[in-house]
Protein: Glycine betaine/proline transport system ATP-binding protein
Amino acid sequence: MEATLEAEHLYKVFGRRPDEAVRRLEDGVDREELRADGTTAAVIDASFTVAPGQIFVVMGLSGSGKSTLLRMLNGLLEPTAGHVRFDGQDLTGLSDRDLRAVRARKISMVFQHFALFPHRSVIENAAYGLAVQGVPRAERERRAGEALALCGLAGWEKSWPDELSGGMQQRVGLARALATDLLLMDESFSALDPLIRRDMQDQLLQLQQSLKKTIVFITHDLNEAMRLGDRIAVMRDGRIVQTGTAEDILVRPADDYVASFTKDVDRSRVLTASAVMDTDLRGDEADCACETATPDTSFGELCAISARLTHPVAVLDAKHKLVGVVPRQRLVGFLGDEQGTPVSCDSPRDAGGDKAVARA
Structure:
């Protein structure tokens, strides 16, 4: 699938002689050595692609470079080196005028602190991006009203921002952003109370089911990243140290830094049967008449199925072919291992093993 957004070897250096600093980084000079010379390398050699309709989450601690990276994606910051391509167009080569046109029509940002105009009504705020695009008033109010309804704000169109709660104000910002193809969300929910934050995550996922927007979402919260991201990039000291699905990062961390991030994650909310099943079937590929799972079955549901059976759970693909089995002790191992280390595929199986699955 062709990427909607592509970042290619992006660097952002602040300070003296940034081009020289990029060359030194390419030669292997450490970031701290540059800092000693009065130069800050905020983003170093960042590359990734985002597919159409995908939520791509960039996560890391404060100072890791994630917000700087986001601002290069829509030209708010010019890369010191590298390229950003959106729908095949190289944004780094555009004039200021053309770049403003792209931002007005195709790319929106949803900020952490709402960024609403206090002197404009809710519907005027939601329609602001359309007004910038030159959409006639009747049309933009109709489309803004539809976006507000999608975000759960029908009936609040004539209200003022200070009459809304924090969560409602963020919904207005989200409704405003829906007018474009690409949403850049910079820790958009981090200023909200935990319950409201969870509600906004639900809202975003519900919207995504129907609208299929392409979204880059910045967060420092791994649980939020795991919940929202189709793919996740983990940043450290300006570099992307791992990119993958939530399961990739949880089950196969690239290094100790990523592993330390994931050790406190609620694994049952992330893992599916495909991540925990044993694919060493030893020739047992018979169809199963017993209760089975699919590769996408959630970990919690998998545990419930296992509790009702006396043998490993059979995992069948869309063609009803046996692609894996999940012994009960394997589930216990994945759930209970504090370090997040997968149980070996050579672990002893439940009594009866695969033969019991095949006979069921």
Summary: Residues 263 and 339 are 6 Å apart (CA to CA). Residues 338-360 have pLDDT under 50 and may be disordered.
